[in-house]
Write a structure and sequence with these properties.
There is one protein chain. The chain is mainly alpha-helical. It has three domains: 41 residues, no CATH class; 58 residues, no CATH class; 46 residues. The protein has six helices and three strands. It is flat and about 95 Å long. The protein starts with 10 loop residues before the first helix and ends with a helix. Bound molecules: zinc ion (ZN) (2 copies). The site of one zinc ion has 8 residues, from helix 2.
């Protein structure tokens, strides 16, 4: 028998996979049942896989609404910025499919990824690490501005004291 080093035969990775299976689901979704919320609060895994926290899909804040979309031509929709071409799951259609949230109209739909989402792949979503970096930059900026304001307050207090002292000198 030869060890091919694949994940199927490597005991190290077999163990890692088993560990992952045993440990996954330690984060409860906001909609999780009481049992699962209690279990994750104690560091345990959820009892129901449906109660585990999922990835989050958040629309861009300037997403066009459907009333506007219905009035646009197919080309106008395809030309919309990549950030609007996000997946939308159609659980009513037969078969159920992932559709583009903007590439649709009266009587037609487009599977996701649509041509625009394929063309501008990385521009569709913001990875979480980028969001975290941006938040950190904003926090650093707030800290810097607060320090600046504190410094100006100190300068102002010194100047006011100087003026008070001058007034006192004039009166004397
Ligand atoms: Zn549950
Ligand atoms: Zn699209």
């Amino acid at each position: 028998m030869t060890d091919t080093g694949t994940t199927e035969t490597d005991p190290f990775w077999q163990e890692q996979i088993a560990l992952h299976v045993a440990n996954r689901g330690k984060h409860a979704a906001p909609s999780a049942c009481g049992t699962c919320r209690g279990r994750t609060a104690n560091g345990e895994t959820v009892e129901h896989d449906g109660c585990a926290r999922k990835a989050t899909l958040i629309e861009a804040p300037d997403m066009p609404n459907w009333e506007l979309l219905i009035e646009m031509t197919e080309q106008e929709k395809a030309d919309l910025p990549a950030r609007f071409h996000i997946p939308h799951f159609d659980d009513c259609g037969k078969p159920n499919v992932w559709l583009c949230a903007v590439c649709w109209g009266d009587g037609w739909v487009t599977g996701w990824p649509c041509a625009t989402a394929m063309k501008h792949g990385t521009k569709v979503f913001t990875p979480q690490h980028d969001t975290e970096r941006e938040q950190k930059q904003q926090q650093d900026e707030v800290t810097r501005l607060r320090a600046e304001v504190a410094e100006l307050h100190t300068k102002l207090a010194v100047r006011e004291q100087q003026l008070t002292d001058m007034d006192a000198a004039v009166i004397a």
